[in-house]
Every structure is written in structure tokens, then in C-alpha cells.
Specification:
Length: about 260
């Protein structure tokens, strides 16, 4: 591996860690760079999970230190996501990913509508929902989100935020804390599946993680300072960019 490749992995990792911590969709940069550097798509998909685990370990610890993480609710929601992620990781080698990604892009665009029409639900949170116990419907939703996350990871943060904000009533800052916790735990199990199937390049993954951890720390450290309003607009912009890539309007991969 050349010095330039090491620099590219680290620098891109900073952006990916930052984007994934505040919103989601940064994984598309990781996958694009890995494949540009010669990894097969399935190996790139597995390799990416190393950085995902380390960046979310960093952000979760930071959010917890700032007392922004509701650990009890996070654990309950993480359990169905973990089960789903194992199934999703197993499915990742056999499903037509291109068709699946376009469907996800459409759902992402629909999320912008809800964020624009009812912004208060995303910014202020709803205490009445936070105090409620997790329903079986929420468990089912997070199970299917886990399947998607185990399958490809790209954009899973959007769906987790929607479930946590609209379903559990948290504002975007605290929802991001719970999101990171859930992604951390289900990705551990998904990574095991990829390791068992020999779909992980440890050199690429660990070097890329250096940047991911840095970006995750910066984003989680200043999330409360920036506030839910800033994060809402940041997510809207990232959703538009990610959706444009999924629909073929732009090609992020060609930039790396």
C-alpha cells in the first residue's frame, strides 16, 4: 500500500465518521473508495464494518460522557436490530443491490418531506413518547432496519433516526446517541458473519478507521453545541446527495 493510499483512507475516514455520526450515508464514500482501490464489492462491504464499529464506539462513549444517551431504551431497540443484522449480512451476497439501493433512495427522499413539514418533531422531541415503553411495532421496525444495516449499511442512519425521533420521541441530538449505540452493537454481529465468509480486508479497514474515529469524535463532541436544528439541515443535505448517487444523477465513486 502506498503513502497516498494510506492518506486517502485516513482523510476520507474523517469525513465518513463525521457524516455517519450526525446523519448517515457516509458509508457510500467508504465503499466507493475501497472498490476504487481494488476491493471486490462484497469484501468492501465487509471491510467497512471495522470502521463502523470503531467510529460508533467513539461516538457512543462521547455521547454517554455528555449524558445524552438513554442506555436503557438503546439496549431494548438494539436487540431486534442485532437479530436483523445477522440475517441481512447473510443476504448481502445474493440480492440485487442496485435495485435495492434505488428503493432506499426513494424512501430517503420521502423522509425529507416529513423533516420539512413537521420540523418540531425532529428538533424538540416528544417527552410523552420517550416515557412510553417500547412497543412490539417498534421492535419489528428495528428488526427490519437491522436487516438493511446488516445487508449494506449505506443510509441506515436515516432509518434509525426516523424510528428513534418519530417513534420514540427523542430530538435529533439524543437520537443520534441512541443510533450510534444500536449501530455499534448490530455491526459487531454483522462483522462476524463477514469474517466467517472471508469478506474482510483488515489492512484497509483498520487504516480507514483512524479517520473514522477522528470524525466521529468531532461530530459527537459538538453535536449538543450545534443543536438539533443544525443537524436537521445537515441531514437533509446529505440525504439529497446520497439519493442523487443512488439514482445515478451523480457518481460519488468517480470522485475517489
Amino acid at each position: 500500500m502506498t503513502t497516498l493510499e494510506v492518506i486517502a483512507l485516513i482523510v476520507s475516514g474523517v469525513f465518513v465518521g463525521f457524516i455517519n455520526t450526525l446523519a448517515g450515508g457516509g458509508t457510500i464514500i467508504s465503499l466507493s473508495l475501497f472498490m476504487f482501490m481494488g476491493l471486490p464489492a462484497d469484501v468492501a462491504n465487509g471491510t467497512n464494518r471495522i470502521a463502523v464499529i470503531l467510529q460508533n464506539l467513539t461516538s457512543t462513549a462521547s455521547f454517554k460522557n455528555q449524558k445524552l444517551l438513554d442506555s436503557r431504551k438503546a439496549i431494548v431497540l438494539a436487540i431486534p436490530a442485532v437479530i436483523g443484522s445477522i440475517i441481512g449480512a447473510q443476504l448481502s451476497v445474493s440480492i440485487d443491490e442496485a435495485t435495492f439501493e434505488k428503493a432506499i433512495g426513494l424512501v430517503m427522499l420521502m423522509m425529507i418531506y416529513f423533516m420539512m413539514v413537521k420540523p418540531d418533531k425532529w428538533i424538540k422531541g416528544q417527552l410523552s413518547l420517550q416515557e412510553k415503553k417500547v412497543s412490539w411495532q417498534q421492535l419489528v421496525i428495528f428488526f427490519f432496519i437491522g436487516i438493511y444495516g446488516g445487508f449494506v449499511q449505506v443510509g441506515v442512519g436515516y432509518f434509525l433516526l426516523a424510528g428513534i425521533v418519530l417513534g420514540a420521541g427523542y430530538d435529533l441530538v439524543r437520537a443520534n446517541a441512541i443510533k450510534g449505540f444500536i449501530v455499534l452493537f448490530y455491526t459487531i454481529f454483522a462483522l462476524i458473519v463477514f469474517i466467517l465468509n472471508d469478506k474482510v480486508n483488515w489492512q484497509f479497514g483498520l487504516i480507514h478507521s483512524i479517520g473514522n474515529v477522528t470524525g466521529a469524535f468531532i461530530a459527537s463532541r459538538y453535536a449538543l453545541t450545534w443543536g438539533a436544528g443544525f443537524i436537521r439541515w445537515f441531514i437533509i443535505v446529505i440525504i439529497l446527495i446520497t439519493s442523487a448517487d443512488l439514482f445515478g444523477v451523480i457518481d460519488i465513486r468517480s470522485m475517489f
